[in-house]
Structure formats: C-alpha cells, structure tokens
Design a protein that fits this description.
The structure holds two protein chains of two kinds.
Chain A (H helix, E strand, L loop, with lengths): L1 H30 L7 E9 L10 E4 L5 E3 L5 E7 L3 E5 L6 E4 L8 E2 L11 E3 L4 E3 L7 E5 H4 L18 E4 L10 E4 L13 E4 L2 E3 L26 E7 L2 H4 L10 E6 L6 E13 L8 H15 L9 H4 L9 H6 L3 E14 L2 E13 L7 E14 L5 E17 L28 H5 L12 E20 L2 E20 L12 E25 L2 E26 L13 E25 L3 E12 L8 E12 L13 E15 L10 E4 L6 E3 L10 E14 L4 E20 L8 E25 L3 E18 L20 E4 L2 E4 L6 E3 L15 E4 L4 E11 L2 E11 L1 E3 L28 H11 L5 E3 L2 E12 L2 H6 L4 E14 L19 E11 L1
Parallel strand pairs in A: 1-7, 13-16
Antiparallel strand pairs in A: 1-4, 2-3, 2-5, 5-6, 8-9, 10-15, 11-12, 13-14, 15-16, 17-18, 17-46, 18-19, 19-20, 20-21, 21-22, 22-23, 23-24, 24-25, 25-26, 26-27, 27-28, 28-29, 29-32, 30-31, 32-33, 33-34, 34-35, 35-40, 36-39, 37-38, 40-41, 41-44, 42-43, 44-45, 45-46
Chain B lengths: L1 H24 L8 E3 H4 L3 H17 L10 H8 L3 E3 L5 H7 L8 H25 L6 H26 L10 H4 L7 H18 L14 H14 L3 H12 L22 E5 L12 H6 L11 E3 L1 H5 L6 H6 E4 L4 E4 L16 E5 H14 L3 H14 L5 H4 L5 H16 L5 H8 L3 H5 L16 H6 L10
Antiparallel strand pairs in B: 2-4, 3-7, 5-6
C-alpha cells in the first residue's frame, strides 16, 4: 500500500516537472516570438457621457485573465499586445471593446446602459463566463451584499439572496454551521447533501466540524475563519452545465468563494459595532395562570396534589415568578468588527494585504464570547512580456469561541414552572437544596462549565499560467488548506451536586483537516471567423487527511488547574481516529459560440475516489449546455424597443456524489473504550458505488424596455438515483445501518424566477429591485419493492423524502376530554400501521426581495425573505409540571388540563398526528442597511477618497402566524435560530 | 509547430499517467485506529483483544450492563420486587404497568444491544474459522468463550420475547429479513453452543479474574438452562459439578463481601473496566443505591410487600436492603459502591454466583422426588442468611411447601439480579396469580413486544399477541 502512495507522489512530480519543462521550453520560444506579441503600456481616462471620470471600471485584455480597474480619477494603466483588444466594463454602462492598434493612450466615454444584466464576469470555476453568454445556471452575490452583515459565517450572509438556495441558521450561538441546500435534498443522508465549497480554487470540506460544546448539534462552520468583507463574490453553480465539470462532487451544487485581489489601489478601513439579541419571546403563562391551570388539572383528574406529583403547588412559593426566557436568553450580544486592507502595486504587480478582527458576545448570562482574527494576502504578477502570470491568494484566520459548557442553557428550560425556586443561591453558587426538596436536580446543573474552541484555518492557492502561443495557455493551480480545531471543556466541581461526588474534569477534542490539490490545465481560445472556441483540459490530484483525538482529564486539585494535564490525577477515555481521502480526475470543456448568437458548452470529467470499494472507484460525468440569443437575430430588430433581450438556454448532464464516510467498504474492528479490547465498528459492504444525479434545465432570460426589466425563469429537474445511504437495517443485523446504494430515484424539480429591475436611475436618484422566487418539489420517484425493504414504513413512493407519517386526528373525546386519533386498522392499538397521514416537511416556496435605493449621498438597501411552509408546535400540554404557550389557556381545541398518565399518552398521540401542524410561513425583514457618503469637499479635506457612515439591521421584523421562537426552524416552539442585530459603522477609503 | 508538439506530449503524458496509475492513486491503507477483520484474526494477541472487547462491551451494552435500561432493571420492574419512585418516566412505567408500547425505547435498547452482541460474536466466530495460521487449541478456547456469550444472550432474548430471529452469520443481506425462530429451536441452539463451549473453554479463568468464561461458568449456566427446560436430571448434574468445586467456590459468611470483585461466591462477573476507567462503580451500584442526602437521583426502590416477606434477622434484609428516610423507601443495597473512580476496582457486576446453583439443585432434586436433598440445599442458603434450617424447625415439610420455599428463597436471594423474579414467575406459571391483581394484567404480558421499529424495517417479523 505504501508503494502506491509513493507512486502518487511520483505522478505529482511528473506533472509538476512537465509544467516546468513547458514553461522553460515555451519561455525559450517566446524570445523568438514574432512582433504581434509585442506588449505595450497603455494608459487613459474613462469618463461618462458628461465627462465625469468613472472610478472602478474594469479594463481587461480580451481573452486573457489580465485586467485592472480605474482609479478615482478614472485613470488606468495596463499592458497589452499592440494588436490586442481592451474591454471596458462597468455596471450600468455599455461594455466597449477597443483595438489597441499601437496606441499608447486610449481614453473613452462610456455610454450609460440601463441593462441590469451587465457584462460582469462570472466565475464558473475552471473558466469564466458572463451572464449574457452563460449556458448554465449560476447565481452570484457580490461584496456589497455581504460585507457589512454582522454574521460569523459567510454562508449565513447569503440567506434569501439566491433562487434555489435554501439556508437555515445554525442556531443562536456564534459559530454554528448553517444548513445549506442547493435545489433541494438529493440524498437520504443529511451528510450527503453538503455542496462542494471551493475557496479561490481550493476545495475545502463543507462538513461541519465536530464539537463537544453547545455547537455539537450544528457543528462548527468550517468557513468561520473567512472574513466576509474580504470576499469579492460568491457564485453558486446549480445546473448540470455548471456543475458537471466537478464530476462526482457536483451533485449538490458548488459554492465558489473568490476573495478580493489588489485591483482597487488604496487603503480601505471599516469598523462597525452593535448588538444582537433574541428576536422573539414566547408568550408563556405567568405564575397565577400557571398555578390555576395546575390546580384545575388535579381537580379534573380527581387527584390530590402532594409533594411528589405537585411540588409546584405544594412545596414551592405560590407568589414567586421568574421569566426564565429573560434569565437564560435575555442577554445582549455585543458585536464589533474592524477590518483594514491595503492594495497597491507597480506596473505588472499588484497586491492586497488585509486583516480583520471580529468579536461577538452571547445572549446567555455569564462571560462568553466569540472572537476571530483574519488576515489575507493576494498577489498578482505579470511578467514583462505579459505571457507569464502568477496569482497567489492566502487566507488565514484564527478564532476563539468561549461558550457555556452546559446543556442547562438549553431552550427547554424556558418551560420550567414560572414559580420554580431560584437556580442560584445569593452567593452565586447553584441552589441544590430547594430543588432537591421536590426530588429534582437543579436544571442549571453544569452551569459553571465552559468550553473554549480555537480553530485555525489556512487556505492558500497559487496559480501559475503561461501563454505558450497566442490563445494557448498552460496553467497550474496548487492549493493547500489546513484546518485545525482544539477544544477544551472544563467541568468544575461547583457545577454539580455535591451528592454526585464530583471531581474537577476536563474534556479535550482536537480535529485537523488537511488537503492539497494540484490541477494542471491547458486552455486554448481561438476565433475562426464568426466561431469563437474555448478549449480546456485538465487534471486533478487531491488528497485530504483528517484526524481527531479526544481524551478526558480528571481529578484536578483545584478548578484553576483544569485543563493542565500535568495536574490531572488521571487521563482517560483517550481515543483517536484518522481518515484519508484520495481523489484523481481528468476534466475538460469545449465552449463554442457562433456569431454571439449560438452557444454550446460541453463539459466532462472522469473521476476516481478512494471512498469506494476497489471495484467501483471510477466513473465519468458530463453535460451539454446550449444557449440561443434570439435578440441578436435580424428578425428581432423591429421589436427591440419593448423586448430588448431574449435568450433561451438548456442543459442536461450527470454529476455524482461521493459524500459518504471514508472506509465504509472495510470490515474493520476498532479499539474499545476499555483498555486493550477490539470490537466490530460497523457492517461492511465492499460493493457500494457512486450516487448519480442527472440534471435537466430549461430556461429563458428576457430583457424589457432597454433591459430596465430583466426576468429569468428556470425550470429544472434533478434525479438522484443509485442513492448512496446508510441503508437502514433492523438491529437484528447487528447494527441499524450499512453503507449501500439504494435502488431508488429521488427527484427534485422546481421553478426559479429571478427578476431584476431598474425602476429609476439618474445622477441623483436610483432605485433597483431584485426578486427571487423558488418553487421546489421533492419526490421519491421510484423504489422497486419498497414493501420488502427496510424503508417500507419510512418513505412513500410519490411523496417527498422529508415527510412525517402521522395519525389522523379525530378531535376530543366527549367523555374523557382527551385527544383522540384514528385506529385505522381497528386492532385496539396505535402503531405505525395507523399513521396514514403524510405531511410534507419541506418548504412550499421561498423567495427574497431586495431593494436598493440611492439618493445623492444616501443609500438604503433592504432584503425581505419569504418562506411558505408548515411547522410543528407542541408546547401546549397544559396541566403538567411544565409551562405552556398561552394559547393553551382556555382553548377549546385542546384537551382538558390534566397531569394524568392517560392525558400524556393522548397528548403524545396528538403530537404525532396532523393536529400539531400549523402554518409556519414567514415574511422577514432579513437585512436593512442605510449609508451616507460624506460630501467630497469634506472627504478631500481629510485626504480621503471616501468616507461612509452606515447602520445595518439583521432580522429586524418577522411576520408569521407561527407561535414559536423562530419560524425558520419550525420543529418546535423553542428552537432558536436567528438573532436580531443592529450595528453601526464607518468606512474609510484613502 | 514545435510548441504544439510539446503541448500534445504534455496532454499524452497527463492522460497516460492518469489512466495508468489511477487505480492505485486512490488506494488507501486502513486508518490507524482500525484493523481489518482478516488482520485481527492473524495473531493470538489480536484475537484475545477481540475476545476482551466482547467482555468489555457486556459492561457497555444496555441489556447486560445492569444499569437503568438493563434486563436487571426492566424485567425487575415487570415483577414484584422493585418499582419506580416517580411516575414520570413513561417508558419505565410501561414495564411496571405491563403496558409496554411496541415503540418503547427501553424495550428497543434491550433488543438492539443484545443483537449487537450477537453480531460481534458471529463476526468473531467467522473470523476464527478462517484463521488458518492459529493453533487449534487456542482457537477452541476462544471459540468456546464466544459461543457461551451467544448462548447467554439468546437465553435472555427468548425468555423475554419468545420466538426471536436466530442470527448465526454476519451477512446483513440475509439477516435483515430474518423471521422469528421458534423458542424450541432457539433452546436447541443455546444448548448446542453451551455443550460445545463446555468442551472448548479452559478449566481456569483466563487471567485469574472471574470475568472470563471457564468450564464452571458454562456448567453453572447449563444448569440454569436445564432448569428452565425442566430437564431436572441435567440441571442437578451441572449444578453439582459447580457446587462440588469447593476449592474455587463457596458461600460467604459476610454478605457484604458477596458482590466484591472475584469474591469466592462469584462464578462469572463483568468488570467496570469496560467503561474505560472514567468511573469504576458497577451500574447496579450507581442506579440502585439511594444517596442518603440527595435522593433526587433515585429512580427505583424495593416494593414494601416484598420487604414484609423478610424475617428481621435475615442477613439479606440486614445487609442487602437499604433505607432512605427522605423518601421513606427501601432500596437495593447489594452493591455498596454508588460512585467511584478508584483502582483496583472494588466491585464487579455479578452475573452467575453460587447461591443460585444451590437453589437450582434444590428445585431439580425436589422435582425428581429427592426431598431430603432439596431440603439440604435450601438450608445451605437459609443458614448462610442467619435463618434456622428447616431440617431443625420443619423437618416434615411437604413437597408443595418446599417448592414454595425454594421460590421464596430465590426471590429473597436473587432480587434485582438479572430479572430472576420475572423469569421465575413466568416459568412456574405463577405470574398471573401474583401479578394478576393489577387490573391491566393480561396473560399476553408474559412476552415483551417485538420493537416496532424492527417490524417497520423487517416485514417478516411478526408481533407477539396482545400488542
């Protein structure tokens, strides 16, 4: 086995050697190159029709990656071949192409173009395209939309902004990983639905990082250490045309994150501060209401309250009232961010260096916080002869997350009886006596526990490229990513009841993920008359390694020593694990374009992944995409005042999914917790293979009224077959799952509508609107012999995967006053056979509406997010010893107040019926930001280019009929997600 | 054109090397913390580790760990020795009230953990079978121990659930759709495994600790299996073999010493080392003992009618029953250590002990008409408990009376150990009479329900009557 690995190294060396050989030989050739390759320096000024300089115009040399941006005075400098073509583009203006023709100065005036489509370059991963020419479906979010959002994870900042992209918050704690789904759930395993994340060309694992802290449910987001303000753009690739070039990893979509480079020269500083708090509060019973309900419950049950069954009525203070929500989750989480970036350069070399600090508190009582520091470097260099190019992007971030180490700060504690005794004694220690009187443990057991998690993330990418002859370019990308996480969980004695004989303990967890990737590529661009061609061929060599280790220390002599392993009496429960993943691929693309009217894009990839058994490691994927710009046809000329742009496009192809645990094909034993034992890990299946996802898309893009109104409508249908799952088994097989391909097809179908309008635009006032709407539909299409399979009672053919099978609620029993559900088969028992109602738990549709207004120096932007869905609510079991939503008070739809066993059973049945479902749709003012640019005369006095003040609000308002804390997580009233934040800040550009 | 040819060379090179060595480029070694099964069965040391792993997991798996979800607790609640303190825990209440819902999670955890152990044993046996380079005598010793654990686990499964799937291989493709095998066939398999094991396992304990399987462990368990199958002769024979091994086993005078690690009365115990050393108390000790001050941790107590059965001079009442004033409750106090992280480990979880062997022999002698012999065995237990022997106070005891006395002694001797009382009530047909006062009692309550989620996944699993 070792031999094979060293062969891998050899292959890598051969490829690198090959590249160097090429560079050398081609450089040799370049010296003797003919005149047309002669490069020259060109400068000039770009102005608008009124002669006012336009800063920020992108100037590129056509068919190259080379480009620059005009400065504040509209000036630019660029080196280009004497016979090259310069392309000037800027949002809101028509793109202009000018032949260099040996000119050393080219100054132009750009014509305003009210088209919202623009000609902005879109990153498609291995190549670039434009919105106009694209044959695939790529959504894009740019820096302005994310840079000021006070969120830890950049993914969270994308919420509501893209059609077909569903993002759900990772909870109220800073650093939790949000859930992201691109065009629905393709796989039956939640871990099989992560998209592929690529930062500056380097794939990073999108799987949340393991944690023992309160983030253990969501996991830690591996993108936390990126600075949202350093992101240039995020592109999401959705259809087959865009994703097939990622082969076996493209099934769930691809998220491309591009960090900023050095094209804006100058210094950029930004600072904001503000605070976050929980957005909503539940309406719960107060003490008199609660106690009244309890008394009535005992009356109804005909039971005498006593110390055991009714300590809240008999033992506890009848006057006391604690607002548990306020006590546990009522805090203000301060948030502060400061970032600084310097860009500059001379001639052919540009750079950008930046750094940022971010800190956020928590809503809990106690001293917890999240802090991160990031730094980034981007270097671009072009050789004198303009043929050789080097690009380097390095991002490094460290964060420190100090959080509570107890589940006591768990939303369920909101429902403690409002007259329960204090959880603390006067001296701040935990109160055990009052609770133990009632036979209870203090619900805040573990309160003094803390976790501190430090993660470090390095992401580096180097791209070398060399133009061998005009149009033919050899390029190689080298990437390295390293992510480490170290967590210390302290469990001091004072967190626990003295009776449990506690000792000072610590729990340690470290994880490390490393990956390198080498991707040599050759591109060839050539025009033959009206035919424009783009060729790409490349290879990928990738290796990921991950390891984790965990252990516990105990018996520290004092609390302050916890974590110092030398002071631990013993170290126990040590465990470690490693996993490796190797991946090779060959990919290619052919892009054809006839007369700017007809576009054809062919992409393909052959992949090999180590995650599969030896017989099933390789597979091929590919896609075809085509587009036709109707409005370029001559017959269109007449109508062009109304319909100014029309494009039809479609794509079909296949992608794969290899996201399943490593080594699933091994029949392996691993160490037991006890010393020196071995025990089987899991069931082994040597034969499982790829999951295949076939994607079909048809779309049209239309521009009206000189492109002031643009509408894009895409219809897609993705079918995932050969489902790769932890195949569910009865326990009699030893374990309840095995990795296997499922003979089933899951379909995600839907409609996405994107609308962009320029409602008004002139020098002083402009107003733009963007709307995105998604109507997803998920369905289990086929499952041969489902009745004979272990899924016979989990899924239904023809229904979505994410369903609840429920009892049929039949109202209150007139005699007992308790809930009843239908015993369908009349066997006198309720069982799965009686769960005949299927409830779709997916979102019916969702969308976002953003408006951006500018008046003079003021601007206002806001995003409204809408989701239509149903959710579950079950916090209404009035009469038991836990608080309930106040809708339960005297509500005739609910069963009588009762603390009895029968009532609990009836309640559980009702929760498992359609009764517990309610409309959980919501409309949310997701972000609102206002900014003011100080007038030029003031900024000039301060020698600044721009001074900007802004305030930003996040989750300010939510309209919903749902009674829970956050309708974004409508699984129960007490699930907490988004915080409401308000921040204000200042941005300075010099 | 020269440049182009370089380009083609490069492409060819790239394609060639990708295709040539692709296969190997995605080959991986197994991770360092795992061993492929074939590797495990290549050396004696790793095979011993795998057997040790099985013993350790007995302390971890729910059905056998003696803790809150174990057979000891759940079958205990179904009988009349122990009860829950509060009515709050619905799944536990269902066992006590004989109203077990098929989706009760405790019921599922007993079932699933037992079958997980059966998988581990089957995997171990298959591995051994293919281990050609190991000594046959070594393989036999290992095989016997594993077979014993399988028989032991099936014994509890069939006594709790009746007919159960008989899984003897590891292939999940077959196992996942297995239907239930009749109790008779399950018993045949148990006996086949035990008889084989008795030949194969060593005379001595593996490492001087009473935590591995030797011949006497197998015999002690065989005597129980024969007792349950009413094969009195064999039951007497095997219990005698153990009782007569006085060099190794004896009843202890001091009842506080019975449950200590490697006590003279212990035939087979499970060591808390299986939990990795974080805590070293037994799960029984942790769950059954009520802390004198902080009683809110307590979940179960002894039933008062059972306490009333004890003579106040009975040492089992004095030494094995505790009393908590705050709750006014008697609790199980056989194990003395509620919490510990000390080494050496003080107490091990008792599975088989000599006391039971005397009572098995008493019953099987009585059933064969040997009243005197039976009386003698019962008196061994009475004497050790500080009670007067029947031979003195009631020498003319009738057969019927003696049978009742044996059952009573079993109840007092073995309470809160591995569900003895529940199984005794069932096998002697007294369950209805003893538990029938409970209005929710049905004769179908004698068998626990097949877990609902298992039936969802395996359409061939039928449900027991009454569920």
């Amino acid at each position: 086995m070792k031999n094979n690995y060293s062969r891998l190294k050899w292959v890598a060396l051969i490829i690198i050697g090959g590249i160097l050989f090429f560079l050398a030989s081609a450089a040799n050739a370049a010296t003797t190159a003919p005149l047309p390759l002669q490069q020259q320096e060109i400068s000039g000024v770009v102005q608008d029709q009124n002669g006012i300089p336009i800063p920020g115009v992108t100037v590129t040399v056509k068919n190259t990656d080379r480009g620059t941006i005009t400065n504040l005075d509209g000036e630019y400098n660029i080196t280009a071949p004497a016979n090259g073509i310069l392309v000037f583009s800027y949002i809101g203006y028509k793109t202009v192409e000018i032949l260099v023709d040996n000119n050393e100065e080219i100054s132009i005036q750009l014509e305003e173009d009210v088209s919202a489509l623009g000609e902005v370059k879109i990153n498609a991963g291995y190549y670039n395209t434009t919105r106009r020419e694209s044959t695939g479906n790529i959504s894009r979010v740019t820096a302005e939309e994310i840079e000021n959002q006070p969120v830890v994870s950049p993914i969270q900042a994308l919420q509501g902004r893209m059609a077909g992209v569903e993002i759900i918050s990772g909870g109220a704690n800073p650093g939790g990983a949000p859930t992201i789904r691109i065009r629905g759930t393709n796989s039956l395993r939640s871990e099989g639905n992560y998209p592929l994340y690529i930062i500056d060309g380097v794939p990073v694992s999108s799987v949340p990082v393991e944690s023992n802290s309160v983030l253990s449910n969501s996991g830690i987001d591996p993108l936390n250490n990126l600075n949202p303000a350093n992101i240039e753009s995020v592109e999401v690739l959705k259809d087959a045309d865009a994703t097939a070039i990622y082969g076996s990893r493209g099934a769930n979509g691809v998220v491309l994150i591009t960090t900023k480079n050095g094209s804006n020269r100058g210094l950029e500083a930004r600072i904001y501060t503000g605070s976050s708090s929980i957005a909503e509060k539940l309406d719960l019973l107060n003490t008199p209401q609660y106690l009244q309900v309890r008394r009535e419950a005992f009356q109804n049950d005909g039971v005498e309250p006593d110390n055991f069954n009714a300590y809240d009525l008999v033992l506890w203070d009848q006057e006391r009232y604690t607002d548990w929500q306020d006590l546990f989750f009522g805090g203000q989480a301060e948030v502060t961010n400061a970032s600084l970036a310097i860009s500059g350069g001379e001639g052919n070399t540009t750079y950008r260096i930046g750094g940022s600090v971010f800190s956020q508190g928590t809503i809990y009582p106690g001293d917890y916080d999240y802090r991160k520091g990031t730094s980034n470097l981007a270097l671009n260099h072009l050789s004198k002869d303009n043929l050789f190019e080097v690009k380097l992007h390095v991002n490094y971030g460290i964060d420190q997350n100090n959080l509570t180490g107890t589940n006591g700060l768990n939303p369920a504690n909101i429902l403690l009886p409002p007259n329960a005794p204090s959880v603390f004694n006067d001296d701040g220690s935990l109160n055990w006596e009052d609770w133990s009187e009632a036979g209870l443990s203090n619900p805040m057991e573990g309160y003094f526990n803390t976790t501190s998690t430090q993660t470090r993330n390095l992401n580096a990418n180097l791209v070398l490229s060399y133009e061998i002859v005009s149009g033919l370019r050899l390029k190689s990308s080298f990437g390295y990513a390293n992510f480490t996480s170290d967590e210390l969980w302290k469990l001091p004695i004072r967190s626990y009841a003295p009776a449990s004989n506690p000792v000072n303990r610590s729990s340690h967890l470290s994880t490390n993920r490393k990956s390198w990737i080498i991707e040599p590529q050759l591109t060839y661009d050539q025009n033959f008359g009206k035919l424009e061609t783009h060729f790409l061929i490349g290879g990928t060599l990738q290796k990921n390694g991950s390891d984790r280790s965990s252990f516990q220390g105990q018996g520290y002599a004092s609390e302050s020593l916890i974590g110092d392993l030398g002071s631990a009496e013993s170290i126990i429960n040590a465990s470690s694990g490693q996993a490796e993943y190797k991946y090779v691929a060959l990919f290619s693309r052919i892009g054809l374009n006839w007369d700017q009217k007809y576009f054809l894009n062919l992409t393909g990839r052959r992949d090999g992944s180590s995650r599969f058994g030896t017989n099933n490691r390789f597979a091929s994927f590919g896609a075809i995409g085509a587009a036709w710009i109707l409005s370029e046809e001559s017959f269109f000329g007449k109508v062009d005042s109304f319909l100014s742009f029309a494009k039809l496009r479609g794509s079909y192809g296949s992608t794969g999914n290899d996201q399943i645990g490593d080594y699933g094909y091994l029949d392996a034993y691993q160490a037991t917790v006890g010393p020196g034992g071995l025990y089987p890990v899991a069931l082994a299946n040597p034969d499982y293979s790829w999951e295949v996802n076939k994607k079909l898309e048809l779309a049209t893009e239309l521009g009206f009224l000189k492109d002031k109104l643009n509408i894009g409508v895409s219809w897609y249908r993705n079918r995932s077959s050969n489902q790769l799952v932890g195949y569910s088994l009865p326990y009699i097989a030893g374990f309840n799952s095995v990795q296997a391909n499922l003979p089933a097809t899951v379909q995600n179908k839907g409609l996405e509508i994107e609308l962009a309008t320029i409602n008004f635009s002139n020098d002083r006032f402009s107003w733009r609107t963007n709307l995105n709407l998604s109507f997803p539909e998920n369905k289990l299409l086929r499952y041969p012999d489902i009745d004979q399979s272990s899924y016979s009672n989990t899924y239904r053919v023809g229904e979505p995967l994410n369903i609840a099978l429920l009892y049929d609620y039949t109202g209150l029993d007139p005699e007992t006053g308790l809930y009843t559900v239908r015993d369908v088969n009349d066997d006198g028992n309720l069982s799965f056979e009686d769960q005949i109602i299927t409830k779709n738990l997916n979102r019916e549709f969702f969308g976002g509406l953003s408006n951006s207004l500018r008046y003079g120096n003021f601007n206002l932007e806001f995003l409204l997010q809408y989701v239509k869905q149903e959710g579950r609510l079950s916090e209404f079991q009035a009469g038991t010893n836990s608080n309930v939503l106040d809708v339960a008070l005297g509500n005739e739809d609910f069963q009588r107040y009762s603390a009895s066993y029968e009532a609990s059973i009836a309640f559980i049945d009702a929760v498992n019926s359609d009764f517990s479902f309610t409309d959980a749709s919501f409309l949310r003012l997701k972000t609102l930001s206002m900014g003011y640019n100080l007038p030029m005369r003031w900024t000039k006095r301060l020698h600044a280019d721009q001074i900007r003040l802004f305030i930003h609000g996040q989750n300010l308002l939510t309209w919903t009929p749902y009674e829970g804390l956050d309708p974004e997580l409508p699984t129960s009233a007490i699930s907490m997600g988004n915080l409401r934040s308000v921040t204000a800040g200042l941005q300075l550009n010099f | 054109m020269k440049k182009y040819s370089y380009t083609y060379q490069f492409i060819i090179l790239l394609v060639a090397c990708l295709f040539y060595s692709c296969e190997e480029m995605v080959d991986l070694d197994p991770p360092a913390n795992q061993l492929v099964r074939q590797e495990v069965f290549k050396s004696e040391a790793t095979v011993e580790s795998a057997m040790t792993g099985i013993y350790y997991q007995l302390f971890q798996l729910e059905y056998s760990n003696g803790g809150r979800s174990s057979i000891t607790t759940m079958a205990g609640l179904s009988a009349d020795n122990i009860q829950t303190i509060s009515t709050g825990n619905v799944s536990r209440m269902q066992f006590q009230e004989h109203e077990i819902d098929p989706d009760n999670i405790e019921n599922l955890s007993i079932w699933s953990s037992a079958y997980n152990m059966i998988y581990a044993v089957n995997s171990f046996l298959e591995g051994l079978q293919n281990a050609d380079n190991l000594e046959q005598s070594f393989k036999n010793q290992m095989e016997g121990q594993a077979r014993f654990v399988r028989a032991f686990t099936y014994f509890y499964l069939t006594n709790l659930y009746g007919d159960v799937p008989l899984i003897l291989k590891t292939d999940y493709r077959e196992n996942q759709l297995a239907s239930r095998t009749s109790q008779i066939d399950i018993y045949d398999q148990i006996l086949a495994d035990l008889i084989m094991a008795e030949e194969q396992v060593p005379e001595e304990y593996w490492n001087t600790e009473r935590t591995s399987i030797n011949k006497q462990v197998v015999r002690a368990f065989l005597s129980r299996v024969y007792l349950y199958s009413e094969n009195w002769q064999e039951a007497e024979k095997f219990s005698s073999l153990v009782i007569n091994d006085t060099g190794n086993y004896g009843l202890l005078e001091d009842l506080d010493e019975v449950f200590l690690a490697n006590s003279a009365e212990a035939i087979w115990q499970i060591s808390p080392i299986g939990a990795g050393g974080l805590s070293t108390q037994t799960n029984e000790g942790n769950f059954q003992i009520i802390d004198p001050i902080f009683s809110f941790f307590a979940a179960i107590k002894l039933e008062e009618p059972f306490i009333a059965e004890f003579d106040s001079i009975d040492k089992r009442f004095q030494n094995w029953v505790g009393y908590n004033e705050a709750l006014d409750a008697h609790y199980v106090h056989k194990y003395k250590v509620r919490l510990s992280n000390q080494f050496p480990i003080e107490e091990y979880s008792m599975v088989l002990r000599l006391g039971e062997q005397y009572l098995i022999r008493a019953e099987s002698r009585l059933e064969q008409g040997d009243l005197a012999g039976a009386l003698q065995d019962v008196d061994e237990i009475r004497l050790r408990s500080g009670l007067q022997p029947f031979a003195e106070i009631k020498p003319e005891i009738s057969e019927m009376e003696l049978f009742e006395e044996i059952l009573l002694q079993r109840r007092k001797e073995l309470f809160s150990e591995w569900g003895h009382r529940w199984f005794d009530l069932k096998r002697t047909g007294q369950a209805g009479q003893v538990l029938g006062e409970d209005p929710s009692w049905n004769t179908t309550d004698l068998l626990y329900p097949i877990p609902e989620s298992e039936r969802k996944k395996n359409p061939n699993l039928t449900q027991n009557e009454g569920y």
